[in-house]
NfeD family protein
Amino acid sequence: MDWLSGGALWLIAAALLGIAELLIPGVFLVFVALAAAVTGILTLLFPELNVAGQLIVFAAWSVVIVLIGKRWYGNADEPSDDPRLNDRIARLIGETVIVTQAIENGVGRVRVGDGEWSARGPDTPAGSHMRITGQRDGELTVEPLSSSQNGNA
């Protein structure tokens, strides 16, 4: 079984690493799989390359390919059409909420959707409608709606 020598084993390892990348996505194993493939091809082209040489080639190509991948993916951040996409609190700013626990001494609770959040704002009785203006330390900051908006909530 000469065909199952070093080069073929490296190519099999590359295929297995590629399959693992597909099963467990993380965009890292693909770089190691590419390094194993390069090592396998070089081992087939230069059969006199011993195991120590193969490991050195694999390590070197792993570093080179990871650095190339890091540079490639590092520049992949494009500005989003919706910069608040993954910022739930930022998406709440401007929303109208109902005070569920009176805001006293600047602290209370408001209903947001089907949940409640701690809120800070001017003293306001329960049942009042408020507008979210921001957040601080995990609490929403709210302000009263203007009188013309108060009936539209």
Remarks:
- The domain at 88-147 is CATH 2.40.50.140 (OB fold (Dihydrolipoamide Acetyltransferase, E2P)).
- The CA atoms of residues 129 and 151 lie 9 Å apart.
